[in-house]
């Protein structure tokens, strides 16, 4: 997992990157849906709510959550307005 944080005069950005053990073959839009799991073969517990909740939280904060997948690389990026 790689995490980068940077800011501009008006915005703050946080980028999360993770390399999966297998290539991810799922559309990004589907990952944002409730109860959708990115890797159906995983044996760990989970309900597939994490990204849907994160997206809702960003909307409440007037921010943006964007996702991208490139083969085995998963990237989530958060953009928030600075309020000070």
From TrEMBL:
GO BP terms: cellular response to phosphate starvation
Nucleus as UniProt keyword: no
GO molecular function, one term: phosphorelay sensor kinase activity
SUPFAM superfamilies membership: ATPase domain of HSP90 chaperone/DNA topoisomerase II/histidine kinase
Coiled coil: none
InterPro entries assigned: BphY/WalK/GraS-like (IPR050351), HATPase_C_sf (IPR036890)
Enzyme type, top EC level: transferase
A cellular component annotation (GO) from this entry: plasma membrane
EC number: 2.7.13.3
This protein's UniProt keywords: Kinase, Phosphoprotein, Transferase, Two-component regulatory system
Reactions listed under catalytic activity: ATP + protein L-histidine = ADP + protein N-phospho-L-histidine
Family matches, as PANTHER family: PHOSPHATE REGULON SENSOR PROTEIN PHOR
This protein's name: histidine kinase
Species this protein is from: bioreactor metagenome
Lineage of producing organism: unclassified sequences, metagenomes, ecological metagenomes
């Amino acid at each position: 997992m790689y995490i980068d944080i940077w800011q501009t005069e008006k915005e703050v950005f946080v980028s999360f990157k993770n390399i999966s053990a297998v290539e991810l073959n799922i559309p990004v839009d589907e990952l944002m849906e409730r109860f959708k799991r990115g890797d159906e073969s995983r044996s760990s517990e989970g309900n597939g709510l994490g990204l849907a909740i994160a997206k809702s939280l960003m909307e409440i904060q007037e921010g943006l959550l964007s996702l991208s997948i490139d083969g085995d690389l998963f990237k989530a990026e958060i953009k928030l307005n600075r309020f000070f």
